[in-house]
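Quick note —
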Amino acid sequence: MNGYAAVHEVRASGTDGPPFDGTVPDGIGTVHAAETDDSGTAPGPVTLCGMSTAGLRPTPGDRPGEAGQAWWPPISGVVICATCDRDT
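Predicted structure written out below.
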């Protein structure tokens, strides 16, 4: 179990960030890590960088209950929160 749920900021197509070139699904902004709740599969209330998870969405492909080296799902081109990554 990697122990972290990946959640992402929602962004509109055409806003600042990585280009929507087919590698990053539309709407996926910066990806953050949050410790899981008691179920072990859903994000807790706050990310590791201190952001509330209330306005964030679960990142597609995330499987916090499965073992793995990285806490984020393998989506090419996403921006990973440096603070969350450092604290995992």
